[in-house]
Amino acid sequence: MKIVIIGSGFASLAASCYLAQAGYEVEVYEKNNTVGGRARQLKKNGFTFDIGPTWYWMPDVFEKFFGDFKKKPSDYYDLEKLAPAYKVFFGPSNYIEIADSMEVILETFESIEVGSGKKLEKFIKEAKNNYDVAIKDLVYRPGDSITELITPQTVFKVSRFFSTISKTVKKRFKDYRLQKILEFPVLFLGAKPSNTPVFYSFMNYADFGLGTWHPKGGMYKVVEAIENLAKELGVKFYLNANVDKILVENQTAVGLIVNGESIYADVVLSGADYHFTETLLDKPFRQYTEKYWDKKTFAPSSLLFYVGFDKKIENVTHHTLFFDTPFEKHAAEIYDSKSWPENPLFYASFPSITDNSFTPDGSEAATFLIPLAIDLEDTPEIRERYFDLIMDRFEKLTNQKIRNHIVVKESFCVNDFKNDYNSYKGNAYGLANILTQTAFLRPKIKSKKVKKLYFTGQLTVPGPGVPPSLISGKIASEKIIKECIL
């Protein structure tokens, strides 16, 4: 039995491995010239940049994935735990570093707010319990029914779905900086802390309990690892392969039209943008209307800058966050007014601090990211204005001049997400994980209108992020294996 997969992001790569292991003939069609989807790589003038994800969290999910094939991550790449995990600036000379050990993190909190150490210890214990329920069980379910969420463990956690991260954190911690550090991890879910159920505090355990890691060579090494595993299992990859249409006969998916050529198969799985995938179908076969998509809450888009410096950058860590402007105002500009932010928070990654493979000697590679509303006007002039804005703040906050040391500079924004990934309104992370878009309330993995057509990735279960994408690939493949017997 032959299965064709659209796209080669993490979800598609994972699914290809599981399906090939089960004995299917698997072919992956990728529109770009490298695999990886959003997790591609940029190389320029001796500098290397991860274009997409830069954080390696939840190492246990990666271990579980490779373990399903009797492999280990270390068979393909080397991991280093970052110490410190990251640094957060709240103003000039006003920053907090998050250590690589829970004991030191507790001491840091206590030194800032008396009594917060014990409160954090309790909070993280609750977060770990949520993590054990969510990551070890719930997120591996296919999102078919509400009954998937009803287990002996979740019955006692119902209230955690109706209070929010923001309310819980602000009730327990009074220092603004500690509140923001505890609210920050749910940004990976693509939603405001004020809209995110406190059950998702499991992200805080992922942060403080499991730590932040770096795969030597960058996140693209993880892409290459899974690609190599897939090839070992017999998966075939086709690059520069633009899918024009999903072929349907008798309400059944029978293949694809790729670069004008018909490719026939027994099952079609799409890891491409869900909305885009449905545009590859004639209208009667689409499950969700434009009105449906327009009403959904999407995770942000992003304005990214990939910058090479001819000197080492001081006063920063591998991951550095800049929270020196109002958190709530920027969130409102992303989700409510959907406008360009007046004075945005931003994030910077300096992988060359940890890994010298990213740069020539004595240089620094940096990725700067500003979260944005989706579907914004995107012009070179706007990008340049925001680059100047964050460079001004960066220099002030870190007390150094860096502009004259820039030797490489590239940007990526809303239009690029649309053009390179067929991303709905230029979103960067898929659908936000808010209560009304959780589990069975997300777009379905199996098409309700076309037989033998399935979906995987950030717009279906379980949600945004690299570990959830790996899990989504597993869920989709298991559903196909169960329903499409060889």
Structural class call reads alpha/beta
Number of helices: 15
Q: N- to C-terminal separation? A: 6 Å
* Strand ordering within the main sheet: 7-6-15-16-17-14-18
Tally of DSSP β-strands:
19
Average the pLDDT over all residues and give the rounded result: 95
Helix content: 25-40%
The 3D shape can be described as: globular
Largest sheet: 7 strands, mixed
Proportion in β-strands: 15-25%
Q: Radius of gyration, Cα only, in angstroms?
A: 22 Å
- Give start-end ranges of low-pLDDT stretches: none
In short:
The protein is α/β, with parallel strands linked by helices and 486 residues long. It has helices spanning 10-21, 59-67, 102-112, 116-134, 152-155, 165-172, 176-183, 202-209, 220-232, 274-279, 290-295, 327-335, 380-398, 414-421, 466-483, and strands at 2-6, 25-29, 41-44, 47-50, 79-81, 86-91, 94-98, 213-215, 236-238, 243-249, 252-258, 261-264, 267-270, 301-309, 319-322, 346-349, 364-372, 406-412, 453-455. β1, α1 and β2 form a beta-alpha-beta unit.
